[in-house]
User: What shape does this take?
Amino acid sequence: MSMFRTACWYAWGMENRDPIHVEAFQNAIRETRWSLGRWGWWSSGGSETQLLADIINDEIEYQTLGKIYSKIPGPWIIRSKIRDQVLKTIDTLVSAAVNPAWAAMAKVVEELRPKIEPEIKKLVDPLGKQKKEIIEKMKDGVVGVINPIMDEHVIPHLSKLLDIIKSPVVEGYEELEKLLDKQFSVFASKFNPSQPEENFRDLDYFSRWSWWEARPATSRFDVMYEPLWALQTIFSDIYPWSTIYNGQDQLRKNP
Assistant: This one.
């Protein structure tokens, strides 16, 4: 199940993978839902035609089918079956209409794109250049004010805090090295030259650390809570427990 979820997460739904197209299409779907009053969390996937069919089907069900369902007699299981059959029929009809319409629209866009993009570029490039120049000027002005303050008040204390944090990290990796040596010793004692594939499967198993097995090394990170909490007064996006956990997780994966 975990592998299927990962595969679904990375699967590419849209047929056109151009990043501008993807961003514009997703934005259009979101704006359309909002214009229809469909606020809140929403999830869908698939190609452009599937996404369009989904949003049309949702609107049809919301606007009309609720009134129909309320008048269907009989137990819930019968009404549920009827609803599923109605939705399946509507989806078939909507998809049959959406597919050729989207194909025609996509063709027009692709034909116009080579003509329009150069003109847009001529207009956008100067704006981008000016934006970059303004940002650089703002950065220079801000840095000129901030650097003296950092040099006087922050850097002396920050370097001490970083030294305090560095020590448990080094100790954690040193402890991990000892654990790794111990595991390799166990692996070497069981190595059978006549079964190399099975042996290296064992090696792969040995390199997978459980929470408990890695605890002697990861526990060295626990003392970083107070220094990290002190850093949060300067850097508000530092969260001690999650930072420590992420570091411990990275330590477990390193072998």
